[in-house]
Specification:
Number of helices: 19
Structural class: alpha+beta
Number of strands: 19
Largest sheet: 7 strands, antiparallel
Bound molecules: adenosine-3',5'-cyclic-monophosphate
Strand content: 15-25%
């Protein structure tokens, strides 16, 4: 009986539980269904909204397109606001020009602007004038004019376009217009006819690009044209008529710029003896050039026609160094990683002709060397007195092959590589940095016997962000008096020779290899120590193994550290050579104070490296250090 009762009760509870489970299942199924339906409904709604939004976007795009096509209006309120902001900012002493970074940068004059230029001034609407002014603000020279003048010019400016070899201005003709170059390049020829601009060895005296202007002299002086201007490629100009030029006073700006050049030159010691007339004549032929960082100013200083005066910023002088003249033994100094990072250069002289570099080059501006330039190493000393360079010994064997000093200037030596390509090994090395008031190229105006060796060596001029004045060598030469020439002769100190630069490079490279190897070894050591701790049969790795790297690190450390006196400061942050008292290789002192120590290795500056307590033990074991 009790058993029956028990069974009954059990079956009843089982029934109840089953019923509950069923109920639960059905309710969760319902819930899922509901969720699913909501999801589908939401998705439908979303696609509907999406299609509506894309339709609206398309309609607006079309309206904008039609407006631009019909009325040429692109100058929105937002654009105007932005221009105002930029104008306000322009007055401040910014380190960069915001206009250089405008996303609306045009490489050629757009069709709406051509249409505007074709209209008579009185037919141009206010918005069209604003559009034109906004476009013209891309030109550096235009930005120098006041906002009022900009609008007045935008109202009267006309458009002209000429193909390659077309003469824009012919020397001796009457001047009728002033030209602003918007796209393309033109050559200035003073002697002979325009064909000289296209003869290889007789280059034009000057090349003008986007943002440059010409044709002001004849208008201001009321004389004949002083030079012939010929298009070197398809070139677009914005043109200002002589009457407008004089009426609006544009000539005052041109005159002011010339005066600025004149005053700058007058402030330089080298031109102190010059008459005002001579200085003015030279300044008139000069041009202002503003360059962003990493733009190449001159690819080959030997072929250059110009002397460069740094007005603001910094101009770097870079030399392409032939590393293949170093013998095999010296070449071994490059660790595999270091070797990879140096550029192989093909015989046609261009630093960027290898396929992967070409690829990169295509992506960047034609005139930029940035990726190669990163490799350059800075040498502050422009004299050949190497004793002044930190830690350099002139007795150091250069590793130059006999009779293989640099015969052909800047031409790298080429070898056939494993892939049957002719390759050379070179690196760019910065030999000088010119700052405001310094000049590059004055040496060239001396007679050949007085020129220093640098006049026959090719250097590359690279802007580190600078404003330059560019004047033809011939123009300065024609006006230079005896005392100026004597001053130039006196000041001409050549840059370090290639042999010296090679030495500097080797030393730098050795230091770099050493650092890399040291870091590798520390990492390697730490990893192996972990293994060694677990498995006693494995030998504890040696940290210093003088056979495995080309430079004996112990010697290096001693060499680096030897001039240091153990001081009581734990770590000095100034740039003079100093060491914390607890670490001195020479004195073999190592005071264990905590688990972390700072190993300082100096080479013309201080470098820090953290080492752990195991490292300290190891240094002691390898007898580099004793407690
Ligand atoms: N050395 C020069 N470098 C650049 N531009 C020049 C040089 N000499 C003359 N020009 C320009 O060439 C123009 C020729 O016509 P203009 O004489 O009216 O004005 C001249 C200057 O604007």
């Amino acid at each position: 009986m009790p058993n029956d009762l028990k069974n009954k009760k059990l079956s009843e509870t089982a029934k109840v539980l089953n019923a509950k489970r069923k109920g639960f299942n059905s309710s969760s199924q319902n819930h899922q269904k509901k969720n699913f339906n909501i999801k589908i409904a939401l998705r439908k709604k979303k696609t509907e909204v999406d299609s509506k939004v894309s339709l609206i976007v398309r309609v607006f795009r079309r309206i904008r397109q039609l407006t631009i096509e019909r009325r040429g209006v692109i100058y929105s309120g937002a654009m105007q606001l932005m221009d105002n902001v930029v104008q306000n900012v322009e007055g401040k002493d910014l380190l960069f020009d915001p206009n250089d970074y405008k996303s609306r940068y045009q490489f050629a004059i757009p069709s709406w602007a051509r249409k505007t230029c074709a209209l008579l001034p009185e037919q141009r609407s206010e918005i069209e004038i604003l559009n034109m002014a906004s476009l013209m603000r891309q030109l550096k020279i235009f930005r120098k004019y006041s906002s009022k003048m900009q609008l007045l010019l935008a109202k009267i400016v006309t458009y002209e376009r000429f193909g390659r070899r077309r003469v824009v201005i012919r020397k001796g003709h009457i001047g009728r217009c002033f030209y602003l170059v918007f796209s393309g390049t033109v050559g200035v020829v003073i002697q002979g006819d325009e064909d000289r601009a296209f003869v290889n060895d007789e280059k034009p005296v000057n090349i003008l690009r986007k943002g440059d202007a010409f044709g002001e002299l004849a208008l201001v002086r009321n004389t004949a044209r002083s030079a012939t201007i010929v298009c070197l490629e398809n070139t677009e100009f914005l043109v200002i008529d002589k009457d407008d030029f004089l009426r609006l006073g544009v000539h005052k700006y041109a005159y002011e710029e010339m005066l600025e050049r004149c005053n700058f030159m007058r402030s330089l010691e080298i031109f102190k003896t010059w008459s005002d007339e001579a200085l003015k004549e030279v300044a008139e032929g000069g041009r202002h050039v503003e360059l962003l960082c990493n733009n190449v100013v001159e690819v080959d200083t030997v072929l250059s026609e110009f002397v460069y005066f740094v007005k603001k910023g910094q101009l770097d002088v870079v030399r392409l160094l032939d590393l293949s003249v170093l013998n095999e033994e010296k070449c071994n100094y490059y660790s595999s990683s270091t070797k990879d990072s140096f550029q192989f250069i093909t015989p046609n002289n261009s630093p960027c002709r290898t396929p992967h570099l070409l690829e990169k080059r295509k992506k960047t501006n034609e005139n930029q060397l940035s990726h190669l330039y990163q490799l350059s190493l800075y040498i502050a000393n422009k004299t050949s007195n190497l004793a002044n360079l930190p830690g350099l010994s002139t007795e150091l064997n250069l590793g130059l092959k006999k009779d293989e000093t640099l015969k052909k200037d800047c031409m790298l030596s080429f070898k056939t590589s494993s892939k049957n390509e002719t390759v050379g090994l070179g690196t760019f090395i910065k030999v000088d940095s010119l700052t405001a008031g310094q000049i590059f190229g004055l040496n060239y105006i001396l007679s050949e016997e007085h020129q220093n060796a640098d006049c026959k060596r090719r250097f590359i001029l690279v802007s580190a962000g600078c404003e330059l004045i560019r004047i033809q060598k011939s123009l300065i030469k024609s006006k230079a008096d005896q005392s100026t020439l004597a001053k130039i002769k006196q000041r001409s100190i050549p840059y370090p020779s290639d042999a010296e630069l090679n030495e500097i490079f080797l030393r730098y490279n050795r230091w770099r290899c050493f650092k890399e190897n040291l870091v590798d070894r520390i990492i390697n050591y730490n990893q192996n120590m972990e293994i060694a701790k677990k498995n006693i049969s494995i030998q504890v790795p040696k940290y210093f193994n003088s056979n495995s790297i080309s430079v004996d690190q112990c010697t290096w450390l001693q060499e680096e550290v030897s001039p240091l006196k153990a001081s009581s400061n734990s770590c000095s942050s100034d740039t003079s050579r100093s060491l914390p008292s607890f670490f001195s290789l020479k004195g073999k002192i190592f005071a264990p104070q905590s688990t972390q120590r700072t190993l300082m290795i100096t080479h013309g500056g201080i470098r820090h490296m953290k080492i752990g307590s195991d490292m300290r033990d190891l240094l002691q074991k390898t007898k580099c250090l004793t407690t």
